[in-house]
Amino acid sequence: MTKTIITEILAKKKLKVVRTFNASRELVWKAWTESKLLDQWWAPKPWKAKTTYLDFRPGGYWLYCMNGPEGEQHWARADYRKIVLLDSFEGDDSFCDEEGNINHDTPGMRWKVNFAKIASMTRVEVEITFKTEEDLKKIVEMGFKEGFTAAHDNLDELLIELTSK
Amino acid sequence: METRRDVFQAIADPTRRNILAKLMQKPQNLNSIAEQFDMSRQAISLHVKILTECGVISINQEGRERYCNLQLEKLAEVADWLEPFKKMWEEKFNRLDDLLNNLKTN
Asked: Which residue in chain A is spatially nearest to B15 when comparing CA positions?
């Protein structure tokens, strides 16, 4: 399995996540930009992502809800800024309410996702920029609290779920 | 103004990260650190002071020399702190892997 590589450049408040997928660039791009596919992988188990609205174009946005096992609901939105078809897209991520009103007390981040074709594979590079070091810290702490660190990933289970459809 | 003293403060500055990288190779005294930088000895001395206050280096007196040593346990806090974030992405990407495989076979 290809490893996720994370490099962190704290002074620049940036985090970089790099991963290579054994699939065409078209397919990987689709998985990142179409709501019915995003909903299937975006949320950490046992949470589920559910898209309310997605308009993938500069100035458009993605509004979705993270649904927890105890009925918790966390809303988030991504505002798309720049899109270069099959190559990269950029946007701002924020927490919000169900109508998409941004909560400015929670940390915001800017994303840039790059897709590079390497033979029959696709290398994805996610660059996340935080406004402040505190924002970066907050995101990590929040992730921890919400059980984003499930002890085991239920890969087999997910595979069965997908193939049985 | 900035009085925070923790490992993140220590590595927030590029010169300080550079000093840490030099000390990774071997413990050194202030003069030998300063020689490797295009910066005044005073400026380097201040950075070393901050690094000490942040707990990421310690100063050992050896004869007339004072040697700076890395405190690796303290530096490991950065990696610990990033671990949940790393795990979150790994899991996310594993799910994406599965989804892509499934899309290809259908």
From this structure: A11
